[in-house]
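Dear support,

Our group has been running a series of protein-ligand predictions, and this particular one with manganese (II) ion is the one our PI (initials K.S.) wants archived with full inputs and outputs. We had some confusion internally about which version of the output was final, so please treat the block below as the authoritative record. The input we submitted was:
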Amino acid sequence: MRILHLSDSHLGRTLRVRGAPRGWTRALDHRAAVEHAVLAAGPVDLVVHTGDLFDRSRPPRAEVAQAAGWLVGLAQRVPVVVLRGNHDRRGLSRTVPVTTPGLHVVDHATRLVVAGLTLACVPFLSDAAGWAAAALRAVGPGADLLLCHQAVDGCHVPGVGGRSGFTFRVGAQRDTIGARHLPPGVTHLLCGHLHPRQVVGLGPATVVMPGSTERTSFSEREQVKGAALWELTSTVTWRWLDLPSRPMAVVAGPHDLGRLRPGTLTRLATPDPALEAEAMARGAWLVGAPTGAPPPAPRPPQRQVGLFG
Ligand SMILES: [Mn+2]
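Confirmed final output from the archive:
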């Protein structure tokens, strides 16, 4: 029994760049990542997606149509389970074709039997106590695996570019779960939410977070992206499946220019017209306002924090 475990694809996420060909959008990279993962995984018995399928709870219509086509095609070959993440907060059953045979859309905690496995499925919940109650119901008399989209005690976002990292702790955030929130008997959690891939021990259980399938912000620029491939025999094992990602670079001076290739998403650490011209001459795609442009109008505060997924 082989399972492809995808998470945090953030389909429809865009990024404004200068220098890219006409018609290019960052959303194409996010689509390509999930399609590539399915090809790279080879034959599997089940595909699960543990949340944040779309970047926004109201994704653009074209993106919904594209994703629906992809999911329907996939579900014709292999059972698919998609779980609601915090970004999909209005629920996936509004955007994903729920009546497709073989496609299981999980907006509320439930227990599913798919491909001969019993799966306890617990979508994102904003408080740990509520999550514990939902997980207990979803596990019921027992489950082989638990699918969720949640921060867990000890999971970590590394610092990058001089910014410090962050470790989640139960009690410090309302939604972070600890060993005490796990139903008895749960040994393996297939978990989304954090974008750096990682494995965390939670009491007797192991939490595997494959991270996002493509980089969703510059804070992820040093992270390897991909998915997890699970193998269930008499034991349960998994390994990372690496995927190619579009390179991202922050240019602080001429010494960083050597890393730029055509199509590298590039941000200047500080405005510098000469450096910007050099970067563009190398084919880099520039993110942010042109050097010398007036500062952008202040944006309203965003509800979601990209760094933490
Ligand atoms: Mn996410």
